[in-house]
């Protein structure tokens, strides 16, 4: 890797940390170089006024004020972007499929010619395991709107025994499993966290009432509960494993 490319990658690693210190050892391990090389690179970044702050025994933090072009991609990043877009084109909702195509077009428009050809030439795909498509009385678009609103939601739900019930819930996250959708919520009726299958929701209404806690706080509480629960179902485990990556 050229030194210039490595300096840009270091900046990206620090950006990715969201303000949390990153040690020279962690950076060196990811870039497969010696820690001494990273120390020299940090001096080089400081010499060109990149706002990197380091503290012995803690790590490096990228402070505000950095002005670099936002679209500097390497080959792996371009592959990842294209693979992600292709996954959404297969597994996402209709509006997301169209958005994925728009994202690809917008990225390609600002890439130099050689990178544009590489971008469109990515040979990675995300085929569906089944010919099924998501079907339900409530669209996934409605679910996503309810999630973003951070409002209390009333829904009618049919469980796996065919019993219909009305619930008031606080939406937290939506998990995409091929063509199934699971909406993680705090259920007021059960006074517990529940994952509702979207295809079993027959009616959904977003109320003009904010959820009492932020989605971030609720997700943290849910994850702490998941960690202490040894009797998770297979779906619960799959959902928690997937959502902790977000």
From TrEMBL:
Q: Which residues form the WYL domain?
A: 142-206
Keyword Nucleotide-binding tagged: no
Q: Which domain of life is it from?
A: Bacteria
Q: Cite the GO molecular-function annotations of the record.
A: DNA binding
Domain Helix-turn-helix type per the UniProt entry, residue ranges: 6-60
**Pfam families, per the entry:** HTH_11, WYL
Supply the PANTHER family for this chain. PROTEIN PAFB (PTHR34580:SF3), PTHR34580
Q: What is this protein called?
A: DNA-binding protein
């Amino acid at each position: 890797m050229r030194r210039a490319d490595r300096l840009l990658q270091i900046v990206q690693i620090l950006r990715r940390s969201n303000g949390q210190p990153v040690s020279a050892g962690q950076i060196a391990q990811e870039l497969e170089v010696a820690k001494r090389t990273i120390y020299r690179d940090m001096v080089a970044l400081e010499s060109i006024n990149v706002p990197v702050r380091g503290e012995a025994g803690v790590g490096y933090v990228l402070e505000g004020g950095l002005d670099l072009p936002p679209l500097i991609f390497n080959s792996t990043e371009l592959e990842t972007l294209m693979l992600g877009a292709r996954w959404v084109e297969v597994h996402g909702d209709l509006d997301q499929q169209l958005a994925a195509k728009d994202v690809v077009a917008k990225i390609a428009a600002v890439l130099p010619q050689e990178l544009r050809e590489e971008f469109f030439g990515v040979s990675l795909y995300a085929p569906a395991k089944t010919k099924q498509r998501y079907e339900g009385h409530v669209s996934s678009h409605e679910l996503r709107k309810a999630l973003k609103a951070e409002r209390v939601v009333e829904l009618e739900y049919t469980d796996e025994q065919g019993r219909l019930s009305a619930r008031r819930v606080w939406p937290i996250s939506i998990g995409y499993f091929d063509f199934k959708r699971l909406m993680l919520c705090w259920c007021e009726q059960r006074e517990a966290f529940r994952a509702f299958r979207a295809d079993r929701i027959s009616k959904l209404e977003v109320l003009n009432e904010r959820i009492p806690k932020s989605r971030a706080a609720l997700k943290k509480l849910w994850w702490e509960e998941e960690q202490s629960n040894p009797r998770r179902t297979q779906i619960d485990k799959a959902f928690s494993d997937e959502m902790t990556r977000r």
